[in-house]
Amino acid sequence: MATQDTPRNRKERRAQARSNPHTKDFPLAHPARDAPKGKTLLEIAEERRLLQRSEGAQASVTTAQINPNGSLFEFLPPSPPTSDATGTYLDILLYSVSLTLLHFTLTLLVHHQYAVDRPSLWPLFLSSVVFSKTPWLILLLVAALHPRAGHLILQVGFAAMALVAGTWLVYASNEDPYMAVMTKAPALGTLWVWAIIELRWEVAVACLAVTGAWGWLNGYGIR
Question: Among 65, 71, 73, 160, which is 20 to 30 Å from 87 by CA?
Answer without folding.
Answer: 160
